[in-house]
Specification:
- The chain has a seven-stranded antiparallel β-sheet.
- The N terminus is likely disordered.
- With 215 residues, it is of the alpha+beta class.
- A hairpin with a 4-residue loop joins strand 5 and strand 6.
- Helices cover 33% and strands 28% of the residues.
- It is built from six helices and seven strands; from the N terminus they run αααββββαββαβα.
Amino acid sequence: MSPIPAPTRSRDVVFTPSIKAIQARKGSRRLFARLDESRPWRTRISPDLATFIEAQTSSFIATANAQGQPYIQHRGGPPGFLRVLDEKTIGFTDFAGNRQYITQGNLAENSKVCLFLIDYARRQRVKIWGEARVVEGDSELTARLMPPGYAARPEQNVLVTVSVWDANCPQHIPQLFTAADVADLTSRIESLEAEIERLRAEVRRTLPASTIHVA
């Protein structure tokens, strides 16, 4: 097997010669070649991306072992459990779980990683490619990354160095809301309904009965 050339443009991190060949065969290569020149994928975390990352409560991390066997693991927590440490680094605490350690084992053999973040309510998704490493026994880093007051036991930490990222269009993303979102909306509706009823009662008290017509 011929070695894959080192990336020369940001999209080359993802668009290997094999992928480019398929794009050419299916007619999209010319478009992406133009985008390589006019709108390359970004290699540093922008302020907008940092805000998006730290607002998430759910994420997926994809790894592969030395044989190429892929694995996707879910990671979740309160907003801020994913922490942007600088314009190239994302960190999070790895909470104690089922003790399979598949992601950690894969990273020991192959540091390549992809983070997939999706905000269903706003129909936004972001893909982040990079390299990751597990950091054990660093209490100072854990204190920095562990969400305050979160009921989980920190076991270790993961640091992701960003290579490139891209934001997708909202096409085909179902619009879903969390239980917290629904509870907040329900509370706001109840508050508005109570205010409407209060205003109706006020109108009834201040106007003659013959002039009142409140829908």
